[in-house]
Design a protein that fits this description.
three-stranded antiparallel sheet, Rossmann fold, 10 helices, six-stranded parallel sheet, binds adenosine monophosphate, Pantoate--beta-alanine Ligase, Chain: A,domain 2, about 290 residues, alpha/beta
């Protein structure tokens, strides 16, 4: 495996690969890799000639009071996982190499961001879209791999690829979970043992809400209130949001039919956890 830190060097490598008609699978990450990242890497390895992974904690997508400095990092461990999963090029630039000071251009996301994490984390998706625009120009991937755990990110990236005419295919991979349903996340390391025991409640609540929606005849506002109250009664978590929306538009649900996302964010002490489930509602079967 080759480790590349210089952006233009990486672009040179991928330009050469593209000339040789090689397919490139790209997995962008912020490192501290776990089984969720492995699922993306395995899919990329299966479906492409060459696999490129980036490990870059992108300062642009963190707000001023967020956890940029304390975001978990372990590059040696990430390198090991990259080798095990057959990554060909591991891109690990420094912040200075990625961003000139001062920056003169940023990408701004106008739709699908006034809800969920977009509302709680102003500017977050602008930071994501900016770094991805740069990464896509450097890597020139055939296929890019994202996890459905970050479903709003997947929706935003769809818009970015389409509206900026990137000739890149997006592959969304199912969320990898712990036995109690907790979605694997680099931030889970921040949970105390007690919070870790409680954190299964995110997926449990999503699953119960899905059953209510499938049954139909449900008042969405009441359902949201009940779920939030039960999470805050049964755990030490503080609910940031619990939303039921259309997917991928992320708009209000007017009719219980079509593709629906139930999404949740809960703050447990030092860890903000997110999760969601996406499913089809078919009103003819009720
Ligand atoms: P991150 O390093 O947290 O920015 O995540 C990098 C990529 O891995 C993103 O596309 C995430 O959606 C994806 N990912 C993170 N956790 C999981 C998980 N538990 N299952 C599947 N994909 C995941």
């Amino acid at each position: 495996m080759n480790i590349v830190t210089n952006p233009l060097k990486l672009q040179e490598i991928s330009t050469r690969l593209k000339k040789d008609q090689v397919t490139i699978g790209f997995v962008p990450t912020m490192g501290y890799l776990h089984e969720g990242h492995r699922a993306l890497l395995k899919a990329a390895r299966d479906q492409n000639d060459i696999v490129i992974m980036s490990v870059f904690v992108n300062p642009l997508q963190f707000g001023p009071n967020e956890d940029l400095d304390s975001y978990p990092r372990d590059f040696e461990h990430d390198k090991q996982i990259a080798i095990e999963e057959g990554v060909d090029y591991l891109f690990h630039p420094s912040v200075e190499e990625m961003y000139p000071v001062p920056m003169s251009v940023r990408v701004k996301v106008e739709r699908r961001t006034n809800c969920l994490c977009g509302r709680s984390r102003p500017g977050h998706f602008d930071g994501v879209a900016t770094v991805l625009t740069k990464l896509f120009h450097l890597v020139q991937p055939t296929n890019v791999y994202f996890g459905k755990k970050d479903a709003q990110q997947v929706a935003v990236v769809h818009g970015l690829l389409e509206e900026f005419h990137f000739p890149i295919n997006l592959v969304a991979i199912n969320t990898v979970r712990e036995e109690d349903g907790l979605a694997k996340s680099s931030r889970n390391i921040r949970l105390t043992p007690k919070e870790r025991d409680e954190a299964g409640i995110l997926y449990k609540s999503l699953s119960l809400a899905r059953i209510e929606l499938i049954k139909g005849n449900v008042n969405l506002a009441e359902l949201k209130k009940t779920v939030i109250a039960s999470i805050e009664n049964e755990s030490s978590g503080k609910v940031d949001y619990f939303e039921i929306l259309t997917y991928p538009q992320l708009e209000t649900v007017n009719e219980l039919t079509g593709t629906i996302i139930i999404a949740i964010a809960v703050q447990f002490g030092k860890a903000r956890l997110i999760d969601n489930i996406i499913f089809e509602l078919d009103n003819t079967s009720r």
